[in-house]
Design a protein that fits this description.
heterodimer, A: alpha/beta, Rossmann fold, six-stranded mixed beta sheet, 22% strand, B: 9 helices
Amino acid sequence: MRLTGWGFRYASRLAWAARDVDLRVEPGERVLLTGASGAGKSTLLHALAGLLGPDEGEQTGTMTVGGQPPARARSGTAVVFQDPDAQLVMTRAGDDVAFALENAGMPPELIWPAVDEALAAVGFPYGRDRATAALSGGQKQRLVLAGALAGRPGLLLLDEPTAQLDPAGAELVRGAVARAVAARGTTLLVVDHDAAAWLPLVDRVVELHPDGGAVEHGAGWAPAPLRMPVRTPRAPGAPLLRAEAAGFTHRGSAVAALPPTDVAVPAGRTLAVTGPNGAGKSTLALLLAALRGPTTGRISAGSALTAGLPRPGRPPHRWRADHLVTRVGTVFQHPEHQFLTGRVRDELALGPLRSGAGDDAAHRRAEELMERLGLAALAEANPFTLSGGQQRRLSVATALATGPSVLVLDEPTFGQDRETWGELVALLAEQQDDGRALVLVTHDDAVVTALADDVLTLDPAAQRVPA
Amino acid sequence: MSLPLTLGPARPVPLSGINPVAQLGALAFLLPVLLVSGDLVTPSVVLAAEVCLLPAAGLARPRALLARTWPLLLGAAGVAWVNVLFGDPAEGSGWPSALALAVRVLALALPGVLLVASTDPVRLADALTVHWRVSTRFAYGALAALRLVPLLATEWQTIRLARRARGIEPGRNPVAHVRLFAGTAFALLVAAVRRGTRLATAMDARGFDSGTVRTNARGSRLRRRDAAYLGGAAGVCALALVLSVGTGSWHPVFG
């Protein structure tokens, strides 16, 4: 693989997604490609996979894979992307691994031995007939990896393959990659901003810079440590929310999404909710955020939170939405789910307007938040066009705009690079200093260390453990 | 957060052994007979035969059956009701012809229910591409899109909840309900397009529709029992016609 002065600009954009990249990778090498979000890592990987044609944009310099243009070398290249649900095609595990082999026109009698070999290579624990819908995220991604390996690719490209998985799932996938490339028959290029976890698995680390160019890091390189906020924990304040044996079961489902759980959220404290995928963390967040009512037990609000409500005795999930947003704010895992307007400025003014603030007051509040969160330059931009880190900051800002006493965040650091991680954690630490109660649903141990006062680990045997 | 939704049968049912194209082929006999017949006897015989096949499609329990067929039953009842209300009395409408119409609707739709309940969509795509030369681009593309449907149901709920979290709720105002629905639908469409694009890229990267002639690892074989199934369908149609003409109730719609 050889790149000389390579650059790419998408047809719809003015700025170059990547430029002046020089890179040379020998067969069998394992390379980690890292860099801040927006540095062009994914663009480079798409180009290597032969997925960026002249229709997609403009290219400078040269890029060859095995001495050929990437589009010609495609049959020897396999890619694994982030979201397993956007990669699986078939309903059964074996069929899905066979998909690429069928596409390549392999005779059917050779396909099944290759499928079995690929499933064994990634340590897939179930048979070929396993329904793909019944797999966990980590197992799905393992299956996607098996599908990529089945064609014995000369070049394996991984685009943040563990970004959507819990730590156990991510470990499964990295283990499978390690096994698959152990024989060195395959050249490996991994794109990830979480460099530390991949270091034992790669020979070289290359960092892309947002302004162009690539830097080779020498042996013994380690990513810069995360910026931790300085904070002093406070004593619990007035009780705000309390879950008493609160549980939730989806209609028509035999299994509870959340078994009965007890937890208290007092003012000034931060509660981290952790546990494996499927333990009910997000469901608990929705209950505490008063977006869903529990199907068993109850959620109650303290008088500090219900002051000013016309009917303070009502359970929180029955509160009117405009009453809710001034009391409990929610930040969803994917910011684009909660954007409703076409401009950052309007997005921030929306909450105050809905909860009865006047036009002037709402826009003053929006200006103030944009100034404080460094979004002022983007006031007229469309929220959907912002980068991942900017979107996340905006979604936190929209929740803060109505001045809620409780802030519920679902995976706030999901998919953030080190720079935006630091910004976000600092922003949340400020909220703690303002006396807000925070509920963080997260897989990210670093964010728990940085911010949490109390930790609730959801397990089949749920129990509360003070930090 | 996920909803319990699956595609195709959880495990094979007896009817899964019949090739999907044979099940579709049976319609070639049923459709003309049902479309032409205007009496009650013909569609009743066909419907009775179809009902006998329900257990073979894993739909023996009334609950499972009702879950799959309630929109259909509602539709048939609606058709009958409209016919009673607005039918032309001079042409001998009223209850008997309304009933005949409702039974026809059920008899026409039930083969679809049987197919969906017994068939893994992958086998359907295999059968269509192998036997009827349907384009692989279309068949497997549609299959991939179908996999996204349960994910969209989950996404819909998340978007609804996210709107409440932003202070948007329709309350009792019907206009606000319509606007919220339209807004949610648009957000869902955006999400579906984004995910669909990613899926298309991933399929592209796996060499789908690259110009190479695709092979099929599972294959799709037509066996003797598929021919028997088709023969059975023809037999049921013949029996229905004989009974109808024999009892003197046969009266074609056109003619």
